[in-house]
Amino acid sequence: MRAYSKGILFLLLLSQFFPYFEGNAQSAAVPLESGYYVVVAAYRLGQDIYAQNYINHINNKDGINAKYGADTNRNYIYVYLDYYKDFDESIKEMLEIRKKAGFEEAWVRIMKGELDSNVNMLTKAEPEKEIPQNVRAKENETVASNGVEEVNEPVQPESVVKDESNTVEKAAEMEVAAPKNPIEEVVEEEEPITEPKPVAEASVFLSLFNATNNNPIEGEVEVIDVDRARLVEKVKGNEYTTLPDPKSKTGEISLIANVFGYRPVQHTILYGQIPDDSTSHFIEWEGNHYVVKFALARYHRGDIHTLYNVFFYNDAAIMLPESKYQLNSLLTMMNENPNYKIMLHGHTNGSSRGRLITMGPSKSFFSLANDVKDGSGSAKELSRQRAEVIKEWLVSQGVNEDRIEIKAWGGGRMIHDKNSVNAKKNVRVDVEILEE
Predict the structure, then answer these.
(1) What value does the mean pLDDT take over residues 120-124?
(2) Mean of pLDDT over the chain
(3) Least confident of 57-61, 70-74, 221-225, 278-282
(4) Domains of the chain: residue spans and CATH
(5) Higher confidence at residue 213 or residue 379?
(6) Residue 180: its pLDDT value, please?
(7) What pLDDT shows up at residue 51?
(8) Which stretch of 58-72, 216-230, 284-298 has the lowest confidence by average pLDDT?
(9) What are 269-292's pLDDT values in tens digits?
(10) Neighbour count for residue 126 (Cβ, 10 Å)
(11) CA–CA separation, 16 vs 22, rounded Å?
């Protein structure tokens, strides 16, 4: 412990010379008022994008409305779920939060100030205050299980930030001078900031964001074994993970963010080595994990992208329900860029004539309703109708029809032999950017 504390003191000395450690980075976080905060994660001051990415992730869960704020004295920003003026209420809520998956290590952060008198009253007037046995800390322990974290001044450094097993950066706080009759205090025991490790030995955060506004983007990253030119795995973006081992001679892997609506971005690193200076523009060591940055830009004029995840019923110009996700991405792209004009290119597998099912008056885009029209037509007509139904859906969502053109190819531009195992990939609709 003595060597550990010396290491931390050394880091604090460095902070006098390096703004990164001192927390001088710009932050949009609002300073936290005095009170009791049920905290689930913390980051260094200035790391707002990581705090916001985590908030966006957990707010998808039922009943979660996380926020974050700054403790400028400590140079941390905290992601918290609830805020209380009453100590007992905060403890009760913290214990409930710990029952939810992903929040097993939630803790109470005490921001003092006007609460000083209340805390003193609790500690002096109620020295024997009962805390549930299952969360009572052992006497003289630095880390207790009740999840309460109180900060007094002056402070002594105890620990810093680490990457927890549940993939959330937790903030370490400092050891505090104990009052005479203390409320049991908790300091989360954390790993210290370390020297960079090889990618194979470290946690990685794949940060996908819009290069224009820095908003996080939902999507996946393809991990490619460069030696064998093969896909190893697809990894979800904006989450902490460990990259898969390509098990190749060189260990060279390419990370490709290929998100619909954005130009692909590719980075190449060596799995078993520490990244060198040539990669510093896209990968950074953040004390105990790597951040790989994918600054994604929207399509430009002339770009063509396939709606690989828009599917149709057999012989029909009616979409399957699972097409909604990528259609929503296309709609978002059109709404974010009001100057976009696009052309939808329809393609089929082969050029023979056959059955052709189209929508009826009910305009049921995603089901074979009772009023569908069952007829026949050429492959070119089928490809046109499929492009048309996507256009109709976009118009129904508020996109001006003048921004969308149609081109029918039938089987004129197949990318695979019509009898091959990949023949289904010939059935597709491409999006071309005409104007931006």
Answers:
(1) 35
(2) 78
(3) 57-61
(4) 2-176 (no CATH), 199-296 (2.60.40.1120), 304-435 (3.30.1330.60)
(5) 379
(6) 32
(7) 85
(8) 58-72
(9) 999 999 998 998 999 998 888 999
(10) 11
(11) 7
Which DSSP string do the residues of 30-97 spell out, in sequence order?
Answer: PBPPSEEEEEEEEEETT-HHHHHHHHHHHTTSTT---EEEEETTTTEEEEEEEEES-HHHHHHHHHHH
As a whole number of angstroms, the distance between CA 287 and CA 205 comes to: 12
- The encoded tokens of residue 254 equal 């390419």
Question: Residue 203, SS3?
Answer: strand
Cis ω for the linkage preceding 182 (within 30 of 0) = no
Tokens at 411, concatenated: 């089987």
Q: Are 11 and 4 in contact (CB under 8 A)?
A: no
Distance CA 38, CA 27 (A): 21
3-class state of residue 331 by DSSP: helix
What kind and span of H or E run contains 121? helix 116-125
* CB distance 189 to 110 below 8 Å: no
Bridge-based pairing state of the strands 283-285 and 265-270 = unpaired
- Here the tokens at position 383 are 């490809």
Q: Give the whole-angstrom CA distance, residue 139 versus residue 271.
A: 45
Q: How far apart are the C-alpha atoms of 110 and 294, rounded to whole Å?
A: 36
Task: Compute the distance between CA of residue 146 and CA of residue 135 in angstroms, rounded to an integer.
Answer: 4
Contact 310, 364 (CB under 8 A): no
β-strand partners of 346: 408, 429
Report which residue type is found at 357.
Answer: I
Angle at Cα 406 formed by Cα 401 and Cα 407, nearest 5°? 170
pLDDT at 436 over 60: yes
Where residue 243 falls (left for φ over 0; alpha for ψ -120 to 50; beta otherwise) is beta
Tell me the two tokens of residue 207.
């940060």
Three-state secondary-structure class, residue 272: coil
Instruction: Record the tokens describing residue 231, joined without a space.
Output: 């896909």
* Element holding 10 (H helix, E strand): helix 2-14
Amino acid at 133: Q
Q: What is the pLDDT of residue 74?
A: 79
Mean pLDDT of 173-194: 39
Nearest to 8 by CA among 249, 172, 215: 172
